[in-house]
Amino acid sequence: MTTTQGVRKMTLQLTPLLDLLLIVIFAQYMEVQETQVAVEQEASAALVERDQAIADLNSAETELAESTQRLSVLRGELSDQSQQLALAQDQLETTQQQQNVLTDLLVELFDIPEQVVEQTINSTKPPAGRTTSEVERLKERFRQIAVEQSGRVIEHLLSYEEIRKRCDVWDIHVTPDNFLTISSGDQILKMQIPIDISKDFVQQEFIDKFIETAHTLPDPKDLVIMMLTYDRRSQRWATEGVRDALPQIVLRMNFESSSRTRYDYADLGFRIE
């Protein structure tokens, strides 16, 4: 066998081995590629999970901060409510003490001799101003209040205060120096009662002047009640003139208000000093 033939024979024997080696290498290459793709996918999924975990952690931290803030606010509100409750309890105790004192005062207040009651009722208005039935009705009502329980009297006073909240009461008073005062709450207005050269009451001028003065008071509620009183030293012409003019004043003011406010009046007579 020549050398050339030996080399050719060896080459033919190595070719299948080389092909097999190439196949093995290619198979390993493909396996490595698949493994790399799988690793990359797993790494990508791990990154996504990490980002989600970080986001969840940030959200949890935010919720924790908000919860902590709400808890702090709630604690503050609880503290304020505790203080308000303590204050309300103090006010309740104070009110209860005041009510007890008021009850005692009312019991003493209405323990008035009969002759004093009669003298007071008869002196609050000129003899011709009150009928006998009115006087007797006032006396009987005063007796009822005097014998009622103090709680019932307090109820009457509270009812009166509720009425005052829903309507305005104008105290109209004729002074000894021929002036008229109009009082509503803390505001007091004063006007001269007009007379002519004969010293007679000028009704129309008084009505105009009264309405003009009353319009300077704060906006009235739905109902206004004018309570007329006069001093014992007031001039007769002044008290009678004002008393006669009031119905016309009420009529005119009701007309001008167009039913927005209802006006009325009551003649209480002499003011008890």
Textual characterization of the structure:
By secondary structure, the chain is of the alpha/beta class. 67% of the residues lie in helices and 13% in strands. It has helices at 3-109, 114-123, 132-147, 150-166, 203-214, 236-257; strands at 168-174, 179-184, 187-192, 223-230, 262-270. It has a five-stranded mixed beta sheet with strand order 3-2-1-4-5. Strand 4, helix 6 and strand 5 (262-270) form a beta-alpha-beta unit. Helix 5 packs across helix 6 (236-257). The radius of gyration is 50 Å and the shape is rod-shaped. The model has no long low-confidence stretch (mean pLDDT 77).
Give a brief outline of the structure.
The chain has 273 residues and is α/β, with parallel strands linked by helices. The chain contains six helices and five strands, in the order ααααβββαβαβ. The protein is 67% helix and 13% strand.
| Strand fraction | 5-15%
Radius of gyration: 50 Å
Query: What's the count of strands?
Result: 5
Strand order of the largest sheet: 3-2-1-4-5
**Helix/strand/pairing class, anyone?**
alpha/beta
What is the general shape?
A: rod-shaped
What is the first-to-last residue Cα distance? 162 Å
- Can you count the helices? 6
Return residue spans where pLDDT drops below 50 for at least 5 consecutive residues: none
Q: State the helicity in percent bands.
A: 55-70%
* Topology order in helix (H) and strand (E) letters: HHHHEEEHEHE
Major sheet characteristics: 5 strands, mixed
Residue-averaged pLDDT, rounded? 77
Say what oligomer this is: single chain
